Automatic annotation (TrEMBL):
Lineage per the UniProt record: Eukaryota, Fungi, Dikarya, Ascomycota, Pezizomycotina
Pfam families: Cupin_8
SUPFAM superfamilies registered for this protein in UniProt: Clavaminate synthase-like
InterPro entries linked to this entry: Cupin_8, JmjC_dom, RmlC-like_jellyroll
Protein name (database record): JmjC domain-containing protein
Superkingdom, natural source: Eukaryota
Protein's organism: Daldinia eschscholtzii
Domain JmjC: 142-280
Length: 280
């Protein structure tokens, strides 16, 4: 109550509060893909949606099991991100100071990476080994590093390609376990995320919640291996602007507006498709 009194007549607080009152607190779910015109209406409103089962007929969704990927990528080396806690590209404490922590990266045989990933279904047992591994390169990797798998997904999402009048800028594959967490961040492009296997839990904030996320400029750092252990090493260079507030831990590193945020939560199952608007 005291917080709301402090923000009385604050235009930013009024904007966030009005948005919350005028918009649903859930991600809209569709049972079929939208037409290009319908999709553009979501783009114009900067509003996410989920198409349940929208990609269920993709060959990738039907075929990509651990054994299938192992056979398809036999002898292939991939870039693997390694961190102690699954916290790549995230604000992390280093000697009492928050830094922007990038993962250690190394080339590994895909079979070795997959063995490590699937050797246990428990995230706690993975963490007990002292590191979490995942494949997360965001450089159009499905058309490059994993090009042998690319034919099993459509080259584009038709409703998005037609509406936006362009082919995808990048097509990326992400492989990880429940031990890895993506830090709160935003992308400046329209994103369509498809769940091929397993689940992914999303926590979403609209772009106007920028005052809630406490963006700060952080020193860049990277994990490095030393005597078998991972430690953070400062990189130097320009600072990285990054949100340090976590909606799952809302009282830590909050701003005076953070309590006004109303995160949307959605879980994707295999074959589900999420439209994530720019700047969300």
């Amino acid at each position: 109550m005291e917080k709301d009194e402090d923000l009385k007549d604050d235009p930013i607080a009024e904007l966030i509060t009005s948005f919350n009152e005028l918009n649903a607190g859930v991600v809209e779910e569709l049972d079929e893909e939208p037409s290009p015109l319908e999709f553009m209406r979501y783009v114009a409103r900067n509003t996410p949606f989920v198409v349940r089962g929208g990609a269920s007929d993709w060959p990738a969704v039907r075929r990509w099991t651990a054994s299938y990927l192992r056979d398809s990528l036999a002898g292939h080396h991939v870039n693997v991100a390694v961190t102690p806690y699954g916290n790549a590209d995230a604000p992390t404490d280093k000697d009492g100071q928050l830094v922007f922590a990038k993962p250690h990266e190394e080339e590994q045989p895909f079979s070795s990476f997959l063995d490590y990933l699937t050797s246990s279904h428990s995230s706690s047992s993975l963490e007990s080994r002292g590191e979490v591994r995942y494949a997360q390169t965001q450089n159009d990797n499905l058309r490059n590093e994993y090009s042998s798998l690319y034919s099993q997904v459509p080259p584009s999402i038709p409703f998005a390609r037609i509406a936006l009048q362009k082919e995808p800028d990048a097509v990326n594959l992400w492989i990880g376990s429940s031990a890895s967490v993506t830090a709160l961040h935003r992308d400046n492009y329209e994103n369509v995320y498809v769940q091929v296997a397993g689940q992914k839990h999303f926590v979403l904030l609209p772009a106007l919640c920028q005052p809630c996320v406490n963006e700060q400029e952080l020193e860049p750092a990277s994990y490095v291996r030393e005597a078998g252990d991972l430690r953070l090493q400062s990189d130097g260079g320009d600072k990285v602007p990054f949100a340090i507030w976590d909606p799952d831990n809302p009282t830590l590193r909050s701003t005076k507006y953070s309590h006004l945020a109303r995160p949307l939560r959605v879980t994707l199952e295999p074959g589900d498709m999420l439209y994530l608007p720019a700047m969300w």
